[in-house]
Amino acid sequence: MRRWLLARSRLARPGTPTLAVIETQRPTRLGEQLIEFSRGTPWDEDIDPEQLRLEALHAIASGARGLIFHSHEPLAIDTGPAALRTDAIRLVNMELRLLEPWIAAGQVTEELAAGDATLQVSVLQTDRSRLLIATQHASAQQFVLGPPPRSSASLLVSGVGASDQAYLLSLAGIKKLKIAHSGGGARIALDNAPHAAAIVLTQDPL
CA-based Rg of the chain, rounded to a whole angstrom? Predict the structure, then answer.
């Protein structure tokens, strides 16, 4: 998804803001196929909040300036699945507010070498900081999101000042991460690594 969005943004005029659409429900055609498989029995609508969050952070990592949460039905429907969908979108928006300075003004500069295909790290840079979006990948996770492939990660970032510190931003708060400076760059240790993590590198206190 990330590479596709980056490729699409290059087709527009330089400086044109990119918006990404986040699907919050099954496609209509898929719903029809599921009814056929179940011989007419309707399937309950469901959503994985973590999968929705992962999709949103993929879009931000590709340089999207805004997100459109697409839905076939109103969020006000009084059902359990609709309430879960509403809460999931609300939580994603709360997290996006924390990342707003980089979403609004950050420039996609590079993708860090992560060592294997299960980890992808994109960088959005402003004048005084960098936002790293680290996402973990596993086979078929676009259908079912299982546990993260790894429980910890180590990121090597070049060009980091000696006074820069690393912070993990999440709805749980701001957590200072271990960072080791060397001639080859700064190595950041991420324990209990989630499917997607937002890490800020800056010399300014958070």
Answer: 19
- For residue 12, the 8-state DSSP code is S
Q: What is the residue type of 51?
A: Q
Can you give the three-state secondary structure of 131-184, one letter per residue? EEEEEECCCCCCCCCCCCCCCEEEEEECCCCCCCEEEEEECCEEEEEEEEEECC
CB 65 within 8 A of CB 20: no
CB within 8 Å of 176: residues ≥ 6 apart: 165, 166, 167, 168
Return the exposure string of 51-82: e unless at least 16 CB atoms fall within 10 Å of the residue's CB, then b.
bbbbbbbbbbbbbbbebebebeeeeeeeeeeb
Helix, coil or strand: residue 151: coil
Q: Determine the pLDDT at residue 2.
A: 63
Segment 186-202, tens digit of pLDDT: 999 999 889 999 999 99
What pLDDT sits at residue 188? 93
Residue 177, SS3?
strand
For strands 19-23 and 66-70, give the pairing.
parallel
Using CA atoms, how far apart are residues 92 and 53, in angstroms rounded to an integer? Answer: 6
Instruction: Name the pTM for this structure.
Output: 0.84
